[in-house]
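Reviewers asked in the last cycle whether our approach scales beyond single polypeptides. To address this, we selected a multi-component target totalling 388 residues and predicted its structure end to end. The input consisted of the following lines:
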Amino acid sequence: MGKNKFETAAIRTQIERSQFLEHSAPIYLTSSFVFDDAEDMRASFAEEKDRNIYSRYSNPNSSEFIDKVCEMEGAEDGFAFASGMAAVFSTFAALLDSGDHVLSARSIFGSTHTLFTNFFPRWNIGHSYFNINRLEEVEKMITPRTKLIYAESPTNPGVDILDLEALGKIAKKNNLILVIDNCFASPYLQQPIAFGADLVIHSGTKLMDGQGRVLAGITVGSKELVEKIYRFARITGPALSPFNSWILSKSLETLAVRIDRHCENAMRLAEFLEDHEHVNWVRYPFLKSHPKYSLAKKQMKAGGCVVAFEVKGGLAGGQKFFDGIKLLSLSANLGDSRSIVTHPASTTHSKLTAEERAETGITDGMVRVSVGLEHIDDIIADIVQALG
Ligand SMILES: *Cc1c(COP(=O)(O)O)cnc(C)c1O
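The resulting structure, written as structure tokens, was:
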């Protein structure tokens, strides 16, 4: 964090005003920028000047968004991408060579898993998975080819918590790059760089936008690593558009107050469900019954927007609950102002084998709720009638 506190940085980190002295930043919908003369253009292309040339490289709106996230995460630099997956892919592609190996937590976003299993082999990049509850095994899994450790916390959809500081120490000791996908926590609840991460990735599509409007992604971290990512992205073209950058930068102004309410609502729902007769168990990081409660308290400011629980009656019970939902949305997104329910076993994680599902904490009757910003009484009422 810079000298401003989080909420202040989220609002007051802004690009230079134009000649019109606008209060709120304008949208710079321009593909390219102009030069004064031949020497200006030469020096700009030679990168002797720090200025905008072409919006595939940089744009004032994306710079403002990046500056804000760097302030929030305590990062030196960053690059903004058209989606979270563009950030994930470009980060790997920029840092890995053919023959390298990635050590990743098993509980990761589905598309990241598919990237490892279906595409990495084409480029001769290996991967292996560790269990976040057995970090003592991680060092034994490091090979001479291992270059990078990758993980998420809290995990999706199991809402398990990874010890970031312990993993940070393992990465440092073994000279490996630690990359954390911090999308579930948001920079407001958790800043992985403070625990030893070298790079932090976000899908801006989730809590950052928070209103289900745009896709976005960002990677922030050390200047040295971001420089490599920038060199790759500048040529391959996954940059976030100026318009979406503007949306994201404005969204961040309200991130803290939105997430406070998300967490308050999620906590209320989690506590309510713990006592419900048709619910077997509830998992939420800030519930005392969560196996990693004290770790969550240590590394997170609050529990986040996702609550997982198991409906009695297995697969059929889960699907019946799902069909009973009236107000909340049946959708795959999360971190939206609208509450969203998913049934991982029959949808997002149906392609996993029963064994793989068990490894990631997914059971047949498990439901994931991304708790939104509707009134908590209405959220609970809808879930109660669906449970009945
Ligand atoms: C959604 C998500 C992504 C991918 O982001 P997109 O913006 O959908 O491309 C990556 N990681 C996590 C943890 C996510 O939830």
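The pocket of pyridoxal-5'-phosphate is lined by residues 83-85, 88, 109, 152, 156, 181, 183-184, 203, 205-206, 215, 217 (CB under 6 Å). We regard this as preliminary and will revisit it once experimental data from Aim 1 are available.
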